[in-house]
Amino acid sequence: MEKMLNKVFVATITELPENLGRTVYVGEGKLELAIFKLSNGKIRVIENRCPHKGGVLAEGMVSGEHVFCPMHDWKINMSDGNVQAPDIGCVKTFQTEVQNNQVYVLLPEN
Amino acid sequence: MKKQKLVLIGNGMAGVRAVEEVLKLDSEGFDVTVFGSEPYPNYNRIQLSKVLQGDTEIADITLNTWEWYEENGILLYPGETVTSIDTVNQTIVTDKERQVSYDKLILATGSVPFMLPLPGADKEGVTAFRNIEDCERMIEASLSYKKAIVIGGGLLGLEAARGLLNLGMEVDVVHNSNTLMDRQLDNTAGKMLQKELEKQGMNFLLEKQSAEIVGESRVEGLRFEDGEVVKTDLVVMAVGIRSNMKLAEESGIPVNRGILVNDHLETEVPNVFAVGECAEHKEMVYGLVAPLYQQGKEMAKRICGETGNGYQGSVLSTQLKVSGVDVFSAGQIIEEEETKSVTLFDDWRGVYKKVLVNDGKITGAVLFGDTKEGTRLLNLINKRAPIEEYMDNKGAEEAGADLIASMPDTEMICGCNGVTKGAIVEAINAQGLTTVDQVKGCTNASRSCGGCKPLVSDLLAHTAGDAFEQNQKESICACTSYSKEEVMEEIKAKGLTYTKEVMNVLGWSSDEGCSKCRPALNYYLGMLNPAEYHDEKESRYVNERLHANIQKNGTYSVVPRMYGGVTNADDLRKIADVADKYKVPLIKVTGGQRIDLFGVKKEDLPNVWSDLDMPSGSAYAKGLRTVKTCVGADYCRFGTKDSMGLGIKLEKKFEGLNTPHKVKMSVSACPRNCAEGSIKDVGITGLDGEFEIYVGGNGGTHLRKANLLAKVKTEEEVLETTAGFLQYYRETADYLDRTSAWVEKMGLDHIKSVLANKKTFIELNHRMDEALSVVQDGWKQALEDKTLLRDLYQNLKVPAGSN
């Protein structure tokens, strides 16, 4: 089945700090995302909750494609959402588009 | 039923014993063929030194006679060497062009002596000490020459030297360390041994590196790296052995330091086994007879199709076979920091006994002069018995088995991460782990509070044996092999200025490091260059980055500073107002004598600070937290000093300082110590006429009572001594080591002597002043910086709809 995607503006790229996360609330607080600008300029958006104990990933330390959860140091790949060994799990990742410095997140239609 | 063809390559102790074990289990099932390069039946190589020493004939050390082979229907080809193995068609070929097929093949090729690659090592009169041929060469040399040098002050070297003495030669033993048998003996026993052997006529050249064997066609002397030349007619190299795995390697059987085998001594090739000195089991290659026999037993079970637990590795033990000298050692030899020992030293009778104890369990022993207890101790070590069992001579041998060994597999080792003993042991065995860090990486054990580290370490020692002991250099993290000291040296030498530069220049395995090394590097760089360094927010843990403590629900807690735990109505009113205004759900008094506001939303933090208009309490910092005080001389009938006043001075001086880990202080005004200085990083006790400064206390996971660092007369001296102490801690401690761990590592006496040097003391104080001069209040700094406020504290809210 094909899913419709909603394109939502989240930030201006120049206003995002490098290697620091940012929390984004979409709608009425139903969805909480963590948005990152990596050191290579790429944007990554993931669900802002660690699958372990719900740590806010936006506050984690960023290293390359990975973010370390601030709660118990789980290491999560921001591209595919996979938790790195020895821990296991996965967070949702979201596609983004950048047009004229504007960052959009592609969200599935509810 | 048709008999299986069992072929043994290597007619030595390990291989033949394994065949004996097979025959014991199944005397009818196999046709056994044995190939041995030496033209003898199986002899006891361990006793070789006795042949040399003249106590024994070759016949006396023969273990299996020619008749034994015959009686058991074993076809022996002595003096015949197997040159290749075809593991696909299951056949072998010898140097006599004999081809034999097998159903099961045992490799027991033993080891070859390691010959130092010295220039001149090929000269006549240079020999190893490994087999009967070597012995004969030495005996022959003794007939026409006088002077011998043995290179290697280990077990083998000393036995060779003793033999050469018996043959009437003058013997020098050259050793690169300053202690004989330093892999098996501690310093004390090593020195006693040296004295005893010197009495017997041996001469020692210790801490000498051999450089060249000089002479025409025959050896005439040995030159050392320091240029000295010692004359000799014979050089015996006894520096060690290596697995003889050439045949296996050439036949495509996987090897590392030895031929790789599993718990059942199976190589990675079907129907091919390896046993003894040529085999590598869990990264260990054993060169002593007991492990080899245990291996043979387990292998036989597998060959005969019986089930067994498999070989589990061995505790090493050694006994020196030199007449008139009794030396025994087993397990751990050298004390580590936590090791306790039971020692008996009787210089008069020349008896020395040391039993090493870790966490109450016997982990090693060294005996000199009287080795009767050797076997018993080895048993106790093997089952990691509590020391009481040894001390109580009549005690039941089986009572109270070792804690680690007796723990059920389901027992929790790491409570934080829910890791059981079984999970750790499995990971150690399955993945060949040898360090606590690797166990942490693979299982999570000890990743959180670290309280279980000693247990994990014990478990490793227990499971992985000596491979664990050999692997203790600590790198900063898994991204690099550099230690903290090395990194700091490189930062200074190369003038490195930011974390990414350090990681690039020093070849980190990941471009941007990890959550362990980044904060550490950020700290080291800032500590080494306080004036210039630009602190990296993105390399700080969340609490330090946001200047607040994150809670499990993603809210934060706020602790304003209350110097010395002293407050006033205005401050309390402000706190109450803020609590109302921001609907703070929990207000709690902390253990450090201040007030904590819980449940503050991140986006409210700047406003809360602004409304409080108080300095940050740094409750989140790897730095000075609080200075707890008692009420002191103003009110207390016992108080001798103004503890609150001094506490406030200390807190004002050191607030905002970055340190390797948090620092808690206290000031009490009398020995009743109401401010609990014995569990603080720095605890001051005021007495009548002086102050006592205690350091390295800790009331947390690793409870530790503080040590008295100094007694001083004035408050000024308290401040200076504290500054000197803290600065030395800042400069030398590993990041995330509390002062308690650091004091243990450095030793209190060392710290005292550093601070006692007037010049050093002044310099430390200077550098502390420099560090303090750039300190800023975290809250104020954030409030004044618009970009920081946006980057760190603002969230984004976007509508869900499409645009």
UniProtKB/TrEMBL annotation, chain A:
It comes from Jeotgalibacillus proteolyticus. InterPro entries: Rieske-like_NirD (IPR012748), Rieske_2Fe-2S (IPR017941), Rieske_2Fe-2S_sf (IPR036922). The lineage of its organism: Bacteria, Bacillati, Bacillota, Bacilli, Bacillales. The gene is nirD. This is Nitrite reductase (NAD(P)H) small subunit. Keywords: 2Fe-2S, Iron, Iron-sulfur, Metal-binding, Nitrate assimilation, Oxidoreductase. Signal peptide: none annotated. Gene3D superfamilies: Rieske [2Fe-2S] iron-sulphur domain. NCBIfam families: nirD_assim_sml (TIGR02378). PROSITE patterns: RIESKE. One of its GO terms (biological process) is nitrate assimilation. It holds the Pfam family Rieske. SUPFAM superfamilies: ISP domain (SSF50022). It comes from the Bacteria. Residues 8-105 form the Rieske domain. GO terms for molecular function: 2 iron, 2 sulfur cluster binding; metal ion binding; monooxygenase activity; nitrite reductase [NAD(P)H] activity; oxidoreductase activity, acting on paired donors, with incorporation or reduction of molecular oxygen.
TrEMBL record, chain B:
Residues 317-384 form the NADH-rubredoxin oxidoreductase C-terminal domain. GO terms for molecular function: 2 iron, 2 sulfur cluster binding; 4 iron, 4 sulfur cluster binding; flavin adenine dinucleotide binding; heme binding; metal ion binding; NADP binding; nitrite reductase activity. [4Fe-4S] cluster binds at residues 630, 636, 670, 674. Pathway: Nitrogen metabolism; nitrate reduction (assimilation). Binds 1 siroheme per subunit. Residues 5-283 form the FAD/NAD(P)-binding domain. Belongs to the nitrite and sulfite reductase 4Fe-4S domain family. This is Nitrite reductase large subunit. The lineage of its organism: Bacteria, Bacillati, Bacillota, Bacilli, Bacillales.
